[in-house]
Input
Amino acid sequence: MSVSGESVEIANVKSSSEIRIGRYGVDIENFENFAIKVLQDAVSSKKIIVIDEIGFMQMLSVSFQKIVQDIVADHRIVLGTIPSDSHPEIDKIKYLKEVKIIGLNEFNRDKISGFLVKDILKALDSSIL
Output
């Protein structure tokens, strides 16, 4: 779902898609038509880009992988979710030098928003952006 409320279904247990993850059929073309446009629009007009999620299904799209890597490498502020489990394409994003990963758990989940706000404000004030 985009911030403006638009959404598209990318996976469904009833899907006849040839690409399957577990029991889900994944519609990569539908995902790319939606997600790439939303991200391109965000890059042209936003300083902070929220991506929920940078996950296993999304990594089936080479176009999505590339645009996320480009956005991060361009020193954009990306607030996103990404699996902690290793995956070759996800790891390429996680280990970009511009990425800061903050693990979320039951002990820090109530305090993390304060830390994120401070980090984001600091990044917005820097000359990088």
Observations:
- Residues 28-45 form the longest helix (18 residues).
- The chain has a mean pLDDT of 87.
- DSSP finds four helices and five strands in the chain.
